[in-house]
Design goal:
18 helices; mainly alpha; globular; two-stranded antiparallel ribbon; Growth Hormone, Chain: A
Length: 454
């Protein structure tokens, strides 16, 4: 079946639920390390407590991808049922998270939350290949990059907005020590997850499978053993993996190892670099948590602002060259982060009494360019090489290129990298900068077909 070229608003609507998924991820990125520390976690324990995300992604996404490839409901479609299921479970976990009474309760809820987000996320990647002709892949994935930036930005800034506008006080805390502004931010995230995914589900109609595909789906259901067949399909797909996909392994490994270092240790690195302390009981650590959200929000503002600007650049340079430049910029930015301060002002935003933007924000500008590229360019390089009818399973397997680096990062940092780097969170951020640059270099060696001109 030949796919129709969709207009701007149609592509925007079909991807709108991506906003809710990324809002949830944004809340985790900026708040989970702080939540763990409020509940009594030690600095050295943080990597292992972040294990939920990569492990659930490793298990859930390939399985959901393979199952969704073989799913069809005339009423609900192929991918949309998974969007809804993920959104409902994620919303419940978001509401419960601030009520955590122990480290392990918070960790357990993070496992549930990440599993739910992965149930929704993987079909969204396959949705682009399902719905758009190849010449619109770049635009479709960059729209997802836009919503990644927008959703994560609002998630990052929500605690600061609640405090800055006097809605809640910085010092107000729940009985478990978690700030009240964290409770409200997670509640807002739950609402965003449900509403945005409902918009995608209600206003997007999926293409029905071809008669041949429908016959395969019916045959598979009759034969049963869905789990066994799913794993067999995953194993076969891994064995038959296209060459460009294999070449993308180091392109994904180094940047995602780097980003996990960044998310885990930014709050601590800022607290130590700017305020000279790692004590979570001080107001300085609270300020570092708020600043973490602001900085993460800033790089995501850059991400969704620049996403559409990258489209003509991607057409001219090609995905792999653009990815190299973008990762090099972000790597250099992280290497410079410890040299920046929070006292020298760059400018003041004209909101309320004025919002000061200090020198420390410079690194997040560069990281925003990196993040926009990471959310789009590898998927464009991959999509052109995936065999027809295997989109879901290969997008799910591709997620392993994200979560395996995260798992390796967790255990390597937990057991020897943190010690090798002098038990200094600032050095972890420096390592992240180096790894971004290495990932960019590897992207130059990915085999790609000639770009389709629009």
């Amino acid at each position: 079946m030949e796919k129709k070229q969709l207009n701007f608003w149609q592509i925007l609507t079909m991807n709108f639920g991506f906003f809710g998924v990324q809002f949830s991820f944004g809340l985790q990125q900026s708040n989970m390390s702080a939540i763990y520390k409020y509940l009594g976690a030690e600095e050295s324990e943080l990597p292992l407590l972040w294990l939920a995300g990569p492990v659930t992604g490793l298990i859930v996404q390939p399985i959901i991808g393979a199952i969704s490839d073989g799913t069809w409901s005339p009423k609900f479609g192929r991918r949309k049922p998974f969007f809804l299921l993920g959104a409902v479970i994620a919303s419940l976990a978001l509401v419960a998270m601030p009520y955590s009474s122990s480290i392990w309760m918070a960790a357990g809820l993070l496992w549930i939350l990440d599993a739910a987000n992965n149930i929704a996320l993987e079909p969204y990647r396959a949705f682009i290949s399902d719905m758009l002709p190849k010449k619109q892949f770049s635009f479709g994935f960059l729209v997802q990059s836009f919503f990644t930036g927008l959703g994560t930005t609002l998630a990052n800034f929500t605690p600061a907005i609640l405090v800055s506008f006097g809605i809640l006080a910085l010092a107000d805390k729940m009985d478990n020590g978690i700030p009240v502004y964290t409770y409200w931010a997670f509640g807002i995230g739950a609402i965003a997850s449900i509403i945005t995914i409902l918009i995608s589900v209600l206003f997007t109609k999926e293409y029905p499978p071809t008669p041949e595909e429908l016959e395969k789906i019916k045959t598979a259901k009759k034969e049963g053993n869905l789990i066994v067949k799913t794993f067999k399909e995953i194993v076969i797909a891994i064995k038959e993996m296209p060459l460009p996909m294999k070449q993308l392994i180091p392109v994904m490994f180094f940047p995602w190892y780097a980003m996990f270092c960044y998310w885990q240790y930014l709050t601590s690195a800022l607290s130590l670099s700017l305020y000279g302390t790692l004590d979570q009981s001080t107001s300085y650590f609270n300020q570092a948590q708020i600043l973490t959200g602001n900085l993460n929000g800033t790089y995501n503002i850059i991400c969704f602002t620049i996403a559409f600007l990258l489209i003509p650049i991607a057409r001219k340079l090609g995905a792999k060259r653009l990815h190299f430049v973008s990762l090099a910029i972000g790597g250099a930015a992280l290497l410079c982060m410890p040299l920046l301060n929070d006292t020298d002002l760059l400018f003041t935003l004209p909101f309320g009494d004025g919002i000061p933007v200090s020198q420390i924000y410079l690194f997040s500008f560069g990281l925003g360019i990196t993040w926009a590229s990471m959310m789009a360019m590898p998927y464009e390089m991959l999509a052109a090489s995936i065999p027809k009818g295997k989109t879901g399973v290969y997008m799910g397997i591709f997620n392993m290129f994200i979560v395996v680096p995260m798992i390796i990062q967790i255990f390597s940092v937990q057991y020897f990298v943190y010690d090798i780097l002098g038990q200094n969170p600032i050095n972890i951020i420096r390592l992240a900068g180096v790894f971004l640059i290495i990932g960019g270099i590897f992207s130059l060696f990915v085999s790609q077909p000639k770009p389709i001109k629009i």
